[in-house]
Design goal:
Chain A is mainly α. Chain A contains 12 helices and no strands. Chain A has a domain of 171 residues: MetI-like fold. The longest helix of chain A is centred in the C-terminal third of the chain and has 38 residues. Chain A starts with a helix and ends in a 6-residue tail after the last helix. In chain B, helix 4 packs across helix 6. In chain B, 31% of the residues lie in helices and 22% in strands. Chain B is α/β, with parallel strands linked by helices and 353 residues long. In chain B, helix 7 links the parallel strand 7 and strand 8. Chain B is globular and about 65 Å long. The chains are: A mainly alpha (313), B alpha/beta (353). At the A-B interface, helix 9 and helix 10 of A face helix 2 and helix 3 of B.
Chain lengths: 313, 353
Amino acid sequence: MTAYILRRLIATIPVMIVVALFVFFLLHLTPGDPAAVIAGDDASPAEIEGIRRKLGLDRPVWEQFGVYIWNLLHGDLGTSIFSNLPVMTLVKQRLEPSLVLAVATLVVAVAFAIPMGVVAAWKADTTIDRVVMGFSVLGFAVPVFLVGYLLIYVFAIQLRWLPVQGYRPLSEGIVGTLRSIALPAFALGMAYMALIARITRASMLEVLSEDYIRTAHAKGVATRSVLLRHALKNAAVPIVTVIGIGLALLISGVVITETVFNIPGLGRLTVDAILKRDYPIIQGLIILFAGAKVLVNLLIDISYTFFDPRIRQ
Amino acid sequence: MTMATTVPAESTATSKAGQSDTILSVRDLRTQFFTRDGVVRAVDGISFDLNRGETLCIVGESGCGKSVTALSIMGLIPQRAGRIVGGTINFEGTELTTQTEAEMRKIRGNRISMIFQEPMTSLNPVLTVGAQIAESLSIHQGLDRRAARDRAIDMLALVRIADPKRRAGEYPHQLSGGMRQRVMIAIALACNPQVLVADEPTTALDVTIQAQILNLMLELKDRLGTAIILITHDLGVVAETAQRVIVMYAGRTVEEAPVEELLRNPKHPYTRGLIGSIPRRRTAAQRGRPRTRLQEITGLVPSLREEIPGCAFAPRCGFAVERCQLERPTLDIHGASHRAACWEVARVTAVPQ
């Protein structure tokens, strides 16, 4: 088991090296002089030269890369061109709302999707199943912003249960945070929920036709226990895999959701940086998102051992 | 010439011994599956009695309704695919076919247990074998976690698994096929059932392991007083284990007799064909003479999708007359405790096996 985790951990190193390489050369692969691109159309040669020196572009590439990796390992993601603040500082300022949104979305999606998928599989080909699968198709098809505005209209404007927009930080009380994050989490979670419900149903259907499920029935095990104790644990590996993949897809959804709900998170930081061509921020965020994705994958891989004893060896 | 006596299904040979002796009584059981291509009559009017502590073998080729009979008794016919459409299954005075699912759950794994053919896939891969045995005990006997676990270890010792304490904490993939089937037996017998239904329990195992598993089952049967319904297609297994045998063909009983009587004196052409198709070692006197061809039953099993008015075996039977095609043979007594569903028993038995 320890060997398995260690193997998985070591496997993440080359992935992160490739990401770092890609991000580093991102700047050098842009057509033309990176310094000129960053400086914009009406910059003077002196200004371009200034930027070049600031970014260290006047030094040899291998040296630049060495410095970049060295800084990375020390938690230095570079400095924003426009605000002159360290990228790490900017990220830290924006991290909480995005993290809270991602976790809330995950919780909402999993909490609804798994019971939905289990019931759909158990009642396969009945009305309940068709309703759940119909919802699942809808969840995929309707874009995040539309769901977002719809939820705002119903729950914030008409019913006045929840705030329309904005984010309340955790430091001002968790109730306020949860209220401010509820609608964004549902809006963002809809497609995610649909995906997980669908996979849960498919995986459960397969497991429910296995011989050991018949054995469980022959033992007199109650339906609920057959579904949850005997079937769901066997169906878990594809489900957690899809939860992991979904988390990665969430990142793009976060950008849109944060825009619709006016949440000052990493998504907004990304959009602003791209619009301003603030390369160090973009590079830093790519490293960060890639790292998060690798970490999630690692956690998913480790979680397999919890569900399936055959993977432990 | 044997005199055929028609008897009503209720007064079978076994019930003469007294009502309390019969533990399970199946009458005219009909189980059908509803497919897109029509109704499949998997079990088409089976009747038999099982006595306390007895081993009853049900023999027949694949698709003859052996397993469906077993699943019908257990109440495990897949709900949307099929249904028991007629007949009764009486277990110690309780009519099983009309029990609710909740009531059946209290009987299954407790008073009637089942062992399946595939030990490799019949155990849950993500639960320890100890937990899988303990589950029956906590459901039916209300044992707490520790007591159920201790009892599970006792059961593993009972089915002669070495180092039961360690094995209880292992997962099915860590066990061999034979050991897994021992675990299945432990699960089935954990609550000391009156009836054990074993559906081809040794078919998937190595020949050397088969005998071990069968002997274990028979030994535990004697020790615990469990009655066994052993489903098999292997007449060798029948000869080794059974007290009484039922031969099934196309969802119907064609012959029923005590094991020695059936093997020595088969009366139905299908049974005779089955016995004739077993390869036999030649005796010393036969050596040197030309080999006799292994007998086979020509033709195919009939489709269960069509209603068969006469004898289901008639199209493959060398003795068939017009009546066989038109009128379904009744299961009549031909000698002590020997019943066969054939209109032409006299002509059949006149020919030496």
